[in-house]
Amino acid sequence: MGHKYSEHYTMRTYDYNQEGEIRLTSVMNALQDISTRHFNSVIRPSDVRNTGLWVIVEWQVSFENSLKAVEAIEVVTEPIYFRKFIAYRTYEFFSEKSILLGRAVSKWAYLDIENRRSKTIPESFSKLFGVENSTIKPKREPISTTGLTEVFSQSFTSYDSDVDINRHVNNVVYVRWAVDAYKKASLKAQGLETLKEVTVVYRKEVMAHETVVATVFKDPSQDHMVTTIKNELGEICVELAFKAKA
């Protein structure tokens, strides 16, 4: 495994939903932020000439305890895999009372800054982050709508404020769209009121001023839903799977 890194995040009033729980998007913003902070704390211009560009490919976030009335979270991250142009990180996040709130795994692609094509991760990164070459990458279940019933759809338009430094819609914005559609669908379908696990797979970028459609599919047993976000050409940009607590 790699070297661990931690950060403390104080929650603000805008980080809570109407039920008084920390928003999923706020948790994921913290996870994304600590990933960048850790990388920047280790990699200096003198370490490599061109550090390339990291782009998030997948998120898997699971929850162990309630996020209600939690005032701050402590996030611990650890890089666990560097191979070719793909990297993985793990996370644990705790309440101010040191209660484990959840875990996460992220998958990243390393791209060339100029042409945005896959770029081999420098060998020096493994040593700097303490990642062994023999590590095995995490596995996840594929997201599929097979056997699911479409229950709801909603269109969203991306704005300039949704675009980040990578010049496309920030990865957490897609989650916000999906959560909005998920909340309406769950009420409509009378299921999935409390999240246990969220998986996000990014497939295609969305730019500013584009319209997308989020379509929610429900499992007949009501233990999970899948949301697909498609662009105007009907291409899948993001897939999200939501699992409910028992």
From TrEMBL:
Q: Which residues form the Acyl-ACP thioesterase-like C-terminal domain?
A: 152-227
Q: Per the database record, which ranges form the Acyl-ACP thioesterase N-terminal hotdog domain?
A: 2-127
- Gene3D superfamilies named in the record: Hotdog Thioesterase
Aminoacyl-tRNA synthetase as a keyword of this entry, yes or no, is no
Known InterPro entries for this protein? Acyl-ACP_TE_C, Acyl-ACP_thioesterase_NHD, FATA/B, HotDog_dom_sf
Keywords from the UniProt entry? Fatty acid biosynthesis, Fatty acid metabolism, Hydrolase, Lipid biosynthesis, Lipid metabolism, Transit peptide
Q: Which family does it belong to?
A: Belongs to the acyl-ACP thioesterase family.
Protein name (Swiss-Prot/TrEMBL): Acyl-ACP thioesterase
Supply the source organism for this entry: Fusibacter tunisiensis
